[in-house]
Amino acid sequence: MLKPDVEDAGMLLFQKLKIHNSEFIRLDEKLSIEGNVISGLCESRRKCFCWICTKSKVAPKHGHTIPRLELCAAVTAVELAEAVSDALEFALQEIKFYSDSKVVLGYIQNRVRRFSVYVDNRVARILKNASSEQWFYVRTDQGTRQISARSLKNSTWLQGPSFLRQKEVESFDFVEDPETDASEMYAMKCTVMLTHSLGTERFQRFSQWSSLVKAIMNLKLFVRHSVTQCEKVVSVQDYLNAERFVIKQVQQESFSEDISCFQDKKPLPRNSSILSLNPFLDKDGLLKVGGRLNRADLDKSEMHPWILPQKHHVSTLIVRHFHNIVKHQGRNRTEGAVRSGDYWIIGSKRLIASVIHSCVKCRKLRGKELHQIMSELPKDRVIPSSPFTSVGVDVFGPWQVIERQTRGGLANSKRWGVLYTCLASRAIHIEIEEEMTTSAFINATRRFMAIRGKSSEFR
Ligand SMILES: [Zn+2]
After folding, report:
1. Ligand 1 centroid from CA 304, angstroms
2. Would you say the C-alpha torsion 224, 226, 227, 229 has a positive or negative sign?
């Protein structure tokens, strides 16, 4: 409402707007399905209402629900009110907004619920320059929608709807938010974990077990040097300590439940993956295999190796490390090396097999031999012909044979065999030679041809 005591100001306004006998202004917001229609109505001193301006928008064909369209209409009403306020040379005392959408009014009155981004942005725009107390409900049948150009003259658009004259404003119930959708619900869950672990995901950066241990060792040395200002002298014990530190981090991450059971002096859960290993915690807090080898003549570390999970990067690094130590031997040798290196990896066989399978050197060493494609067979081997037409010749031997018995002993001599092979049928003929001379070979060949017939080709 305008300042009721300043009549000049009201007159000035309506002179500007070419509306007479009016002093007060009230804005009304309406929505039609075809488009958004906003009308501003002037209320005169004698309870007379006048239409000031209207703004409408064409609703998009799809993608918008009715509540969203009505929310857009509410935004337009606020923008229109701001435009009218800016056009006036004095401040408006009161502005009231009316909507027949209980959903939109529910959005505006909301103080608790969170909306989707679309609704949230528009409600924020509405509440930027207008408070929720300025919004009122009006029944749909009291609205000013669906008016043709002919009936505009006598319509409520120019005279104002009857509810504006009522002093009491109709109350309304809020409607359930139709925007409630699982995809647009916001849920936040905050979990605070207090952990003293380094985080083994950092170990993923290393591809070698030794480099990981050395990095941890250098890190510990650096911290020790920073605190105590002692000399940076590396010892074997530092390396072993770093090794133990890495194992402890992995165990605390993978077997946290089992370790907490040990610390609380409770029995391990039945579904524990290490239950069958009869594990125990050593004085450093590391999980070790119990076993039955206490009376064996072995090192303590070999009798009770550290337990490691199968699916962990550190386990893979250890297997790869010992696989290199045994010079890329097979699965059994690698597994033996891992166990004698004081590590017990759960399901190690599968892990070792996968490491060997992906080892480039092993793939090269165990690769299949390649064979060249043989050339075409010669003509004399594939064309049918009489036996021994084309022959291959070779000589084999010698053999020691006893030729005769003499008075003092045996007279030994040598014999050679001449092998004639038919190239077409693979038949063979063997002649005996008494000495490795040309004449002996010629004689053997003459004997061969006398039996088998003339050969046309020797290979
Ligand atoms: Zn290998």
Report:
1. 27
2. positive
